[in-house]
Amino acid sequence: MFRSIKRVSALNSKLALSKVSAPSFIKPAMFAIPSMRSYSAAGGLTHDEIKERIFSVLNDFDKVKHENISETADFSKDLGLDSLDTVEVVMAIEEEFNVEIPDEEADSISTVAHAIKFISNSEGAN
């Protein structure tokens, strides 16, 4: 009586340890993620792209005479903007290029050329 229990127990343990085979039409899954190259940063903006976008920002201001906009234009002398308008222009440039200009830098930006130079040197500008 105990021999048969021992035999059945041994048979069950062998079945539990035996490898279960999968049907032949099932293949092991391959990785579905294609290989791709990734870069840490996008290509930088060109000088002309920055200039064009800053000109566009300035054209949106009613106080600015469009014919006076140039790369060498001074915000107050050439474009007729007061200090509050200049702050608004700098804030609009921040929004346009998705950058934050520190207050010290913002105070020094008084010409279109300064704004272009700052955006050119900003790594996060896009």
TrEMBL record:
PROSITE patterns attached to this UniProt entry: CARRIER, PHOSPHOPANTETHEINE
Domain Carrier: 48-123
Main location: mitochondrion
Pathway: Lipid metabolism; fatty acid biosynthesis
UniProtKB keywords: Electron transport, Fatty acid biosynthesis, Fatty acid metabolism, Lipid biosynthesis, Lipid metabolism, Mitochondrion, Phosphopantetheine, Phosphoprotein, Transit peptide, Transport
Record GO cellular component, one term: mitochondrial [2Fe-2S] assembly complex
Molecular-function GO terms, alphabetical: acyl binding; acyl carrier activity
Origin: domain of life: Eukaryota
Cell compartments where the protein resides: Mitochondrion
UniProt similarity note: Belongs to the acyl carrier protein (ACP) family.
Known function: Carrier of the growing fatty acid chain in fatty acid biosynthesis.
Protein name: Acyl carrier protein
Protein species of origin: Smittium culicis
